[in-house]
Design a protein that fits this description.
heterodimer, A: 3 domains, flat, B: Four Helix Bundle (Hemerythrin (Met), subunit A), eight-stranded mixed beta sheet, 13 helices, disordered N terminus
Chain lengths: ~450, ~300
């Protein structure tokens, strides 16, 4: 996430590092690099202009703090400016009112409204709300069916919308139905539309006045270009947005939209979509995001994720084992399974300071879902002794294991090679290769 | 490709023109002097033009390059007024686009297999629906393969488009192996004698290596069943997307090879500029552009009418 943007900033800041103090001469070069980096990141041109002007003023006007070097001071100014631009704190949905509370999702075609609807429903359910899904996209073929399928997967109730009904009527009726059945949050999935499509925008306004939603969320694709601002502005003017869901943040899109939309509408980013699975939705933390952009890493998110999946005792035990060089195939399997639950390796590594740029080299090292199943099957087909001591695995044992796990000897060989690589990597890490950061965290391999 | 007159005079051209009106406005109305259409060229006009090009998603590099070229010409005294500037710019746009103009030619041996790829939400399924209609109109028999087995109801969506176009469809259950669907589809096409197979795939972010691996497998399976297939790997790009489109194109290029591009959602947004940067930075021709929701709003790309509609 934001990987390339932080790469660029690091380049810029290196240039500044050699200088003794911030002067008009040396800051101009850095500012221009910042400007180009942000433009390349699809941050809106006008937003960039304003932002750069703000940074220039602060950088030249302010006294350099005694404790900071000029480049650190410059980072601080850019960082604060960015965090401010994206909003200063995390925001949640406005649910504090008489239920059922309607939440409307709007946006362009293909921005990810239906998927986000499902994800938010799951998020609410985890927080003990009882969500109700309402498909109100009567235009795109099979859009209603898509939400119904998601609802079935999540086991969350879904309104039985009919494609020949008027979307306003659907929403009104769904609200009545939700009130009768005791659902407290109603998620309305509206049809994708271009912000310049007047009749369809009018339809949204009619839905709004019919049901008075607690939240109107703009679902925006992190890959959106310069136009993000116009889109957000048009929706905002027509409906009064209360928040933004930024989707597809697990790609390598610079996500400049995140910076621009907030600057133009004032509506905070409330959630970010970070994957195809239905639990891949995170609250948005502007300050953390700014750190990430600046290559300071997002250690907080990383630690939170790790804590979700790892129980501390296990982690300590593992650490001991590592020190004694007793990493076994059993541990390897546990780590792989746990890692998979945390998200992709690339995402995780991107959160660690100083690693951002190296992530590219590590791509393709993570097993995918089906490969993981194979790995688990192979390890499960070994005897306890073999798992403790991988050196035992000679040709005939490997043949037996392949037959037992329904794989081939080649699969077993590949696994063993990966295991050896992991072992080596761990040895390197436990010697403090990552400034000690990685030592406590199970992210290897 | 359709050689009739409707390319310049008919409804598609007018829709294209309307679709690009926002870009046009952005490019010229923002540059006040150009908007007035008269007056001398000066440094202010040039830098306003640069800003307008960036805003239209043409990319900072291209904008700087265009404006540098124009500035040099202006200094040589070749651009006395904004009218001259405008027509020079138009020529430059045409020159950028022309080398990348190559319509999709569907030719025997049949079946001609088109694999459609792209990130999530760019409009792959819709593009296939529209392509199926267009190909039917050109007299081909079409079979679509519902190999997006991941997204909920993607198969049903494609079914609706296939019914509208009168194309055949090969579908499995949701969650099935997409290579298996592709395999069955080309098999069916061979036995039915269909001309074209359009393979819909699940949207995948180009950064997810395991998903890219999966699409590589589809390519392999197709190639095994029909020599030379896929004959076309069509990458669908969302014109409202910004610079990331380039990164997408490059990764898909590496993994599957990309032989053609379809740019969707060009209507309504101010992003006509993305056509320029994509053309320049990606080595594949633009086959289709989409400027609206109707089946006939997807058309073969034509550099001249595009430049005409833009200016």
């Amino acid at each position: 996430m934001f990987e390339n943007l932080s790469d660029k900033f690091q380049g810029v800041l290196k240039k500044l590092r050699g200088h003794g103090r911030i002067t008009e001469g040396n800051v101009e070069g850095a500012l221009n690099e910042v400007r180009l980096a942000l433009l390349e990141a699809d941050v809106n041109y006008r937003v960039v202009k304003e932002f750069v002007a703000g940074v220039r003023q602060k950088a030249l006007g302010a006294e350099v703090l005694a404790s900071l070097s000029p480049d650190q001071h410059f980072i601080k100014i850019v960082h604060d400016g960015m965090a401010k631009m994206m909003g200063t704190q995390a925001h949640d949905l406005n649910l504090a009112r008489k239920p059922p509370v309607p939440v409307m999702l709007v946006g362009l075609q293909g921005s990810g409204k239906t998927t986000s609807c499902g994800k938010i429903a799951l998020h609410l359910q985890k927080r003990k709300r009882s969500p109700f899904l309402v498909p109100a996209d009567v235009y795109r073929p099979a859009a209603i069916e898509q939400l119904k399928v998601l609802a079935r997967q999540l086991d969350i109730p879904c309104f039985d919308s009919r494609p020949d009904a008027d979307p306003v009527d659907i929403c009104r009726e769904a609200m009545r139905y939700a009130a009768l059945n005791g659902y407290d949050t109603v998620l309305l999935d509206t049809a994708g539309r271009l912000h310049i499509d007047a009749p369809l925008m009018e339809e949204l306004a009619r839905i709004k006045s019919a049901i008075d939603p607690g939240d109107i969320l703009l679902v925006a694709d992190a890959m959106t270009g310069q136009d993000a601002v116009n889109v957000a502005k048009a929706f905002h003017e027509k409906l009064g947005l209360t928040g933004v869901v930024l989707t597809k943040m697990d790609g390598d899109a610079r996500g400049g939209a995140a910076l621009s939309i907030r600057a133009v509408t004032g509506a905070p980013v409330k959630f970010v979509g970070v994957g195809e699975k239905l639990d891949a939705l995170e609250p948005f933390h502007p300050d953390r995001m700014a750190s990430r952009i600046l290559g300071m890493g997002d250690i907080l998110t990383f630690v939170e994720k790790a804590q979700e999946q790892v129980d501390e005792k296990q982690a300590r035990e593992l650490q001991k084992k590592l020190r004694r060089n007793e990493f076994t195939l059993d541990d390897f399997r546990d780590q792989l399974v746990r890692l998979r639950k945390m998200g992709s390796v690339e995402d995780l590594l991107g959160m660690i300071p100083g690693v951002g740029g190296k992530v590219k080299e590590m791509k393709g090292m993570a097993p995918d879902e089906s490969e993981l199943k194979k790995v688990v099957a192979i390890i499960d087909s070994m005897t306890a002794q073999e798992r403790r001591n991988a050196k035992l695995l000679n040709g005939s044992r490997r043949k037996r294991i392949a037959a037992g796990s329904g794989t081939t000897v080649q699969d077993v060989n590949r696994l063993m090679k990966n295991f050896q690589q992991a072992e080596e990597m761990i040895k390197r890490f436990s010697k403090g290769g990552m400034k000690g950061m990685g030592r406590n965290l199970p992210f290897f391999r | 490709m359709n050689e009739s007159g409707d390319r310049t005079g008919g409804t598609f051209f007018s829709r294209l023109k309307a679709g690009l009106s926002k870009t046009r406005e952005l490019l010229f109305m923002n540059v006040e002097a150009i908007a007035r259409g008269i007056g001398p060229v000066d440094e202010a006009v040039l830098s306003e033009l640069e800003e307008a090009l960036v805003l239209a998603d043409a990319g900072a590099d291209l904008a700087v390059e265009y404006v540098d070229t124009l500035r040099a010409a202006w200094r040589r005294g070749e651009l006395p007024d904004v009218e001259a500037l405008r027509s020079r710019l138009r020529r430059m746009v045409e020159e950028t686009l022309a080398p990348r103009m190559a319509p999709l030619v569907v030719a025997p041996p049949y079946p001609f297999v088109v694999l459609v790829v792209g990130v999530n939400g760019v409009g792959k399924t819709t593009t296939i629906g529209k392509m199926a209609s267009w190909l039917k109109g050109e007299g081909h028999s079409v079979l679509v393969a519902a190999a997006d087995t991941f997204r909920a109801a993607a198969i049903d969506q494609l079914q609706v488009w296939a019914d509208r176009a009168g194309a055949g469809i090969v579908r499995h259950k949701e969650g099935a192996d997409s290579s298996a669907v592709a395999f069955d589809a080309v098999r069916a096409a061979k036995s039915r004698g269909s001309h074209v197979v359009l393979v819909d795939t699940a949207g995948r972010l180009h950064t997810k290596s395991h998903l890219m691996e999966e699409v590589r497998k589809v390519v392999r399976v197709l190639g095994k069943e029909v020599p030379g297939a896929p004959h076309e790997v069509l990458l669908v790009l969302d014109a409202t997307g910004g610079r990331n489109a380039i990164a997408q194109a490059k990764t898909f290029q590496e993994v599957t090879g990309v032989t053609g591009l379809a740019l969707t959602k060009l209507d309504g947004t101010a992003k006509g500029g993305v056509v320029l940067s994509v053309t320049r930075e990606v080595g594949a021709p633009i086959r289709f552009i989409g400027v609206g929701e109707k089946a006939e709003d997807l058309r073969p790309f034509d550099a001249r009418s595009f430049a005409e509609a833009l200016f």
